[in-house]
Structures are given as C-alpha cells and as structure tokens.
User: Fold this.
Amino acid sequence: MERKKTVRVVLAAAVLTMGCAGLSAQAAQDDAAVAPKPRHAHSSGRVLPFPYEPSVPQGASAIEFRSFEQMTPQDRDLAADGESSIGERAGFAGLEFNEGKWAYRQVVCRALPNHLFLQFTRNNGAADESLFSASIPRGGDGRVRIIPIKRRGYSLFSPAPINALTISAFNHIRGEEHVEQAPQWLGTGLCYAALAGAQPVAAPPANAELPGSSAIGGPAVLETPNQAGAVIRFVDVAAAHRPMEWTMRFNSKGKLLKATHVPASLAKVKTLEPGAVDAKGVELHPVPVDMKGKPVE
Assistant:
C-alpha cells in the first residue's frame, strides 16, 4: 500500500514538472510575440550629385577656347572624323551647314573630359550670324550631338540657354561620360553655359580683391534644397551688354531639370585708398553699395 502511494506521488510530481515546463515555454513564446522587434536606424544623409567644396580652386573651372591651330593633333583628327555626322545633324536642324563658310574652335570643358566640344560659327555680317555647338565622344561610347544656338541671328526655337533640347543634349552628354567621381559643380555649370553659346567667366569669390570700382554680381554658389539634388548659381561677368545670372537645377542623380538665364542684380563696390581715415582718425574700409548708392548689408 505504501509503495502504491509512493508511485502516485512520483507520477504527480512528474506531471506537475512537465506542466510547469510547458507553461514556461508558452510564456516565453508569448513574451517573444509581445516584445517589440528591434528597428534598424537608417541615416538620412543628403544625396548630392556634386562633391561638396567649401571653396572652388581658382582656375579649376575656367572654360578655355582654342583655335584650330591651338588644338592638339589628336583633337583635330577626332573633329575631322566627326565632321560628316556633325554636318548631317546640323542639316536636320536647318542650320544650312553646306552653305557659306563655317569656322570652328574648341571648347575645353574640364568637367566633361571624355568629350571633344566644338563651336561652329558662320558670320555673314551684322545681325546675320549662325552658331551651334557640337560634341564628339572621345572613346566612341556615345554619339555625335549638336546644340543649335542661332540661325542667321535668331534662335531656332526658344533661346538656347533655357531650351529643352539643350538640356536634353547636355544630359545625354553627361550620361556618356562614365566618370568614377562626380564632376566639379561650377565647372559643370560653366560648361553648360559655354555649350549654350556663352563665353562664361564666373564672378569672383566674395573675398576677392577688386581693383578700383567695379560692378559685379554675387559669387557662384551650390545650393542643396530638400536635402537632395542641387542648384548651381553663378553670374557670368563676361556676358555682352551686362552680367547674366545662370541658375541650373539638378536632381539627386545629376540630371539637369531646368535652367534659367536672366540679367544679374548688380552691386557696386568702391575701394578706398589704403590707410584712408575719417575725421576722427578711424580707418575706413571699402563699403559695398547698390546701384542707387545705398550700403549693401
């Protein structure tokens, strides 16, 4: 009889132990289901199509124009190889390439090194000038493209600097570059301006020394709105008649979306002679003023 009681006690203890283990396992599963899953933080860094540069090295973005005689033999040969394609595309655009005497010069754009850029002109006298740009891929990966600017003194469509065809051609050219590093931003903007018919020279930095008294526009800037994409702004101080402000908006992948080209707002800077002082002996400094003579803050 005692033996039977012992067996029952042992069985009861075993059942109780199994039950507790099952409850513990169920509780662990419930806790796992209720416990929040860990979340991985994602950085929201800016997506920029151009490298950030606190200051642009002087001369690094300059556009150079070379005459036929100044071109390298390799570039002359490349231009000769692309002449038939250039003539064909210029004919499609109604530029009368097979009529009159055309001349060209090279546009050296360091931001887009894998293309040869040429600017073709035909001058029949005052107010009768035709002009277009052409690009030839250096490595053969791409196609010859032209950017119409003027035909006999007039724009073929809307003005070349803001034309959708100019923007499209520029995006295709940049897509054919296949460079490992993003190009320098100001050089890219100046190159676009040159291909659209300008001979651009960006305004000097705000801290540049200016001789005497001169009218200038604001320095070139790179803006990054909404933490994606970029806006390039610069004033072409070499434009005919008056400085012109260029604005180019790019998406995060570096595709040009829109370009504007308007007369720049000017500020007149007067530089005083070194050591000039007022009536109380306090040293005077150059004071920037606007076109009405009011100080610029």
